[in-house]
Structures are given as C-alpha cells and as structure tokens.
C-alpha cells in the first residue's frame, strides 16, 4: 500500500514530529510505501521515505495552510495513494492524528467576540470542521480522553470515529535501565556536584510550555536551595526574552538554554526533576519519557498526560486554575526532600513495568491498515 502522511513542518525534536516518524516507520516496516508532504524537513531524511516539499504561498500562516491542503489535493490526483494521514487539520484526510487541542474549545475559553471575526479564526475553524464535522469521514487518533470529549462537545463527532491510543515512546531510548546506566557519567560530564540539583524542561514553544513559570519558581526558592540549582531548558525556540526574564529575577546563573539535542535520554537520567508547567498541552509525550526514565515530574493539570503522573505517583500535578504560588511551593518542598524524589523515581519505574507506554506506533499502524481496507471497500461500492 502507498500511505501518504502530511504535516506542516518536520524537525527532529517536536513531540508531534516524533510520533509521526515512529508511526510512518512502523508502516514502512510492514512493507508499505511512505510518502510525506511537508513545507519543510529539517535533519536527516528517513531512508525509503518519499519526501515531497510543498511550496509556501500566502502572506499569513492560515493562508499558507490553506494553500498546503489545496496543493496536496491537486498533487494527489496526478500521484494517487491509498490513504492520507494528517498531523495538521485540513480537508481531505482519511485519518487525523490529534496532536493538538480542540481549537474551538481553546478559543471559546481564551478569546473574545472580535477575535472570532478574524480570517485566522475562520480559517482554522474551517480546517477543524473539515475533520470533525458529522459530514466528514475522517477517523481520528487521539492521545487523551479529554481531547475526544472536547471535539464531541463542539462538533458532535460520532464517538465511533475516535481511536484512543496508548502512549508511545521509544523503548530503545527511554527505559528503566537508562537511569542507572547514564546518571553518574552524565552528571560528571555536566559538572554537577553530588549536592546540586539538576532541573530539566524539554519542549519547543517556550511560552506554551510555561518556561517563565519555571524560571519564576526557581527564583522563589530559598537562597540555600536556589544556589544549588542548575536548570536547563531544551527546545527549539528563541530564548532571548526568557534569558532577560531570568536575569531580571536574579537567576541567570542558574538557567541555561539549549536548542534541540540528541541526548535527552541521558539528560533525563542525570536530572533530579522535570518541570512542565504548561499553559496548554494536548498530551505531553515528554511526561511519559520522564516516567520511563524514572525522572520525577512537576506539571500542570492542563497536560493531557498529567493523569499518568498521578497514577504512577511520580511527582506533583498542579491543579487548574493554575497558581504560581502552588508551583513555587511544590518545587521548594520537592528539593528539600531528596528521599521523596527517590521514592517518586522508583514509583515511576515500577509503573512503566506494569503499564504499556510503548505501543502507540503499532496501534496506529493497525488502525491505518484497517482504514485502507475500509476506504477501498467504500470506493468499490
């Protein structure tokens, strides 16, 4: 079968991009031909993937996105495939992987009346409606039950069109053995002392991931704790304003920013705590990677994968509505009790031995193969 995937941008370090790559590779390993439509591909290309670069046309993001879907529709008439799997909302998809929240729900909560009159709002709602409306035949892969609830609430999408996936991290990179394997060596390479605390935050889009919240929590620590902290923020974004914020709060010496890196498993093994106080997060694969790494977590309840942290007993979930004081307190209390950090770490490793946190690519490939057969049957009749 020839299976086509489309996403606006591929870069190696995004959660959506990593899910796409592992699902596409799972399909390829089953003997299917993989075509990828994208505006941009950063990093090494996967052997055997046919990557089709879509030209960018339009003065705004939403105009370019509309052109993206039209261009692919035209291209596919001349270069047919068996199925189109989308990682961004657009018309014409057979399957949509919901790596994002419901746009209609988000704007209803955060935006006023006049925003809904903008071309941007209309364009994004039209794209979302094309996937989730009752007239659509697109089936949807979701990462959390909350996503399904939100989409059904706003679009009355039939529940049978949804497929809830398990988490899916790479077992070759994130496993219970890595903490013991990498921790001492990596801490030595990074120059971390035995009495110091290495805090980590991983993810692109620093505003949405709550990096300023993390910096403020570190700045609020008692001086005897703050002086022992090294905080790394790893992700693809412009760090200039966040560096200035750390300097303003007097913690620039504690905070370092790094672009996407290949050694996240080693960094998670070396870290004492993952901070993820996101403003918005449909799922948050980094939380599951932390679980499998035995890395304690402080995150916000808004994260789709936050229930896994609660179920595992691997840290603190900050309830909504968000309180900066509660985050500050949670961080301070955690660092004052290294024994609790170790208990959280062991609880995470036990949880991942008992639960399936690896099978997302295989589950998605199963659904894709079934969908190809369903589409072929419907077309035949």
Automatic annotation (TrEMBL):
Pfam families on file: Glycos_transf_1 (PF00534)
Domain named Glycosyl transferase family: residues: 185-348
Gene3D superfamilies: Glycogen Phosphorylase B
Domain of life of the organism encoding this protein: Bacteria
Protein name as it appears in the record: Glycosyltransferase family 4 protein
Organism: Rosenbergiella gaditana
């Amino acid at each position: 079968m020839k299976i086509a995937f489309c996403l606006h941008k591929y870069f190696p370090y995004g959660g959506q991009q990593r899910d796409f790559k592992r699902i596409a590779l799972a399909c390829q390993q089953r003997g299917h031909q993989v075509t990828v439509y994208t505006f941009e591909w950063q990093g090494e290309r996967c052997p055997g993937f046919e990557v089709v670069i879509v030209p960018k046309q339009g003065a705004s993001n939403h105009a370019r996105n509309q052109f993206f879907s039209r261009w692919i529709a035209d291209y596919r008439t001349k270069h047919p495939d068996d199925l189109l799997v989308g990682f961004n909302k657009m018309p014409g998809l057979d399957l949509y992987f919901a790596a994002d929240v419901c746009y209609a729900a988000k704007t209803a909560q955060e935006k006023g009346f006049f925003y809904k009159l903008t071309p941007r709002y209309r364009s994004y709602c039209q794209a979302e409606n094309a996937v989730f409306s009752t007239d659509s035949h697109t089936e949807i892969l979701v990462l959390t039950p909350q996503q399904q609830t939100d989409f059904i609430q706003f679009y009355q999408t039939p529940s049978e069109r949804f497929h809830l996936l398990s988490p899916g991290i790479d077992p070759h990179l994130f496993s219970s053995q890595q903490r013991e394997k990498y921790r001492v060596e990596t801490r030595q390479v990074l120059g971390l002392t035995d009495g110091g605390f290495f805090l980590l935050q991983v993810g692109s889009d620093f505003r949405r991931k709550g990096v300023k919240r993390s910096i403020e929590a570190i700045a609020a620590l008692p001086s005897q704790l703050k002086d022992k902290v090294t905080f790394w923020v790893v992700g693809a974004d412009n760090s200039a304003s966040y560096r200035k914020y750390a300097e303003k709060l007097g913690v620039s010496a504690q905070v370092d920013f790094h672009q996407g890196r290949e050694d996240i498993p080693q960094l998670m093994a070396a870290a004492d705590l993952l901070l993820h106080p996101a403003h918005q997060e449909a799922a948050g694969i980094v939380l599951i990677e932390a679980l499998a790494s035995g890395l304690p977590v402080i995150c916000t309840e808004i994260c789709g994968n936050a229930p896994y942290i609660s179920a595992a007993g691997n840290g603190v979930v900050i309830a909504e509505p968000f309180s900066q004081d509660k985050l500050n307190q949670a961080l301070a209390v955690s660092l004052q009790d290294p024994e609790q950090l170790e208990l959280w770490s062991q609880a995470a490793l036990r949880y991942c031995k008992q639960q399936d946190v690896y099978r997302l690519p295989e589950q998605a490939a199963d659904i894709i193969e079934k969908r190809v057969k369903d589409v072929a049957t419907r077309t035949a009749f």
